[in-house]
Amino acid sequence: MLFDVRLQFLMLLSCSGVILFTSVKTTIFLAGIALLFLGCQQLWKPLFYWMIIYTSLLIAYSLANQYLKISSFGYISIILFIILRISPTLIIASSLAKVPSGKLLASLQRMRIPDSLLLTLTVALRFFPVLKMEAKIINENAVVRRVSYKQLGNWLRVTRLFEYNIVPLLMRTIRLADDLSSSAATRGIDAPFKKTTIYIIRFSAIDSIGFILLTFSLMTPFI
């Protein structure tokens, strides 16, 4: 059970804008709304995954503020703070990652988004899931060659880790953007005529819950 894609996209835009005006405490409230957004869609695996990650980030940020007040380590708190701020947006994006490409395109076209912007949004929303899959493949190859970052002994040779894990991923990243753009063009995203779709794009009764969560997310800066 997933909310309408247009609702998910509006929720993503809402979180992206609201995080600019929130503190760490209100960001926790916003993250709670985002997690509830996943739960209402019965996306249990991403929900459990993000709960662990966000809780770990909060603990790390608290410890960093308490014990790493030395200026030379101050950047750690800043990095954790930035990650905490953008986490609600990433949580909502993980929901959109479950939507089929065709349905995503058809829903965004219903919102009258210009094709040039639509192509950018589609590639951006599909980029990270595909990149994650590519990283998994690269790591599996690294495990066979015993140069994986999961093998603790390799951390003594950081340059080797970088060469066999990060460099291939960077090279794939460059090509992925082209591949995703070509895929969208193949589906006729830039065709000059009206598009059709096999998906039924309409709001349902369950989407009312999503709109309530969307309203709460917009009210977060005023809490």
UniProtKB/TrEMBL annotation:
**CDD domains given for it?**
EcfT
Q: Which UniProt keywords apply?
A: Cell membrane, Membrane, Transmembrane, Transmembrane helix
Subcellular localization(s) per the UniProt record? Membrane
What InterPro entries has UniProt attached to this entry?
Answer: ABC/ECF_trnsptr_transmembrane (IPR003339), ECF_transporter_component (IPR051611)
Q: What is its main location?
A: membrane
How is this protein situated with respect to the membrane?
Answer: Multi-pass membrane protein
Keyword Glycosyltransferase set for record: no
Question: What is the official name of this protein in its record?
Answer: Energy-coupling factor transporter transmembrane component T
Q: Which organism is it from?
A: Bacillus changyiensis
